[in-house]
Amino acid sequence: MDRMKRQWTGEDRIPKMSKSKDRPKADLLLSMAAELITCVSMGDDPIGRIANGSLAIAGDRIVAAGPASEVASQVDAGDATLIDARGKVVAPGFVDCHTHLVFGGSRAREYALRLTKTAAAVEAMGFRTGIPATVEMTRATSREELAGSSARRLARMFRSGSTTVESKSGYGLSLSDELRILEINRLLSSSHPPDVISTFMGAHDFPPEENRNQYIEIIVNEMIPRVAEEGLAEFCDIYCDEGYYTVSETRRILEAGLSAGLRPKIHADAYSPTKATDLACELGAVSCEHLNYTNPHQMRKMAEAGVVGVVLPALDFAVAHPKPFDARAMIDGGMVLALATNLCPACWTETMHFVMVLACRRHGMSPEEAMLAATRGAAKAVARERDLGTLEPGKLADIQVWDLAEFEELIYRFDQNPVVAVIKRGKIEYQTEAQD
Fold it and tell me: What is the pTM of this model?
């Protein structure tokens, strides 16, 4: 905090604040940002840019946001910590709403070989591939090693502006290993600045030691009850696709989750059309993820049902997907879109900035659409839209500061991390020197 204040505080340039009993008392003031990106639509501007903008924070909440002169008159900031954000862009923290944060090992060799060879050819060389390979490595990794490697990933994500991270299980595929992953999620959330939201995904694949029907019985009758009883997850997700779980199996597992209090999500239409999105609408799923083979009729149906579409540009890039998701059709169909990293061994990216760059260049999204999908839409995908995703009074003060002069540079300068400060629940948790 002291280094931050020495670097950025410029009390002589910040509008003077007087004390008043009639105005809310601010603890922290970010003042005179080159651009304040509120992600609240203002006229023709969907991301609500405010030039020379300020944010006032009391405790863990935003109490005022707007032009610096207006915020100065709305709050009592006489005793507030003052942060001069001149020449910088202030934005909501990213919500990374689809990750598999906790896993063991690396599939770097597999990834390199798959650049020029098929999966079958790689396996013929003696390498295990895909989800089964990571399940084997995760099971063989100690709890301490899993927690440590996941914490390092989470720290890098936070330094890149992700203040909330959803983390799915799914690389254990046994009762004990799935519980272990979810317990690590809880540990990470309680001991590190980002909020980690847990999703149970025992139905990510089938384990080698169980047959299909036996494993589904274990998920429904053992895993889901234990997860719910111990409060280890908020959502239940499933991989519904050719070669994985059928729509009828998906229904049974998600209905069991709903009965236990776990809200449904579905990995849908990633590599084949499955009609899983219809089931998502019927069950009131919070989100459907991937959506590469989703058709326009299904998109409109999801829009009407309020199911958020979570799309994954980095995954499509990493696997050279033969059918990249169609963001424009989804937006034209009225869907709320969310962007996420899909951090996992098959798609090892930790930065939402990179995901936004890919969404714009490879999937036809505008920078503004990508920004809203990485914040407001992503918050809705984890049922946190009341607290996260925008910078407006009443929301949690989850904020990132970029060493950029204007918003468009986030996409234009795509080979660097522009984040110089991250504020989580009103506290400066990360800070670094500004870049040229």
Answer: 0.94
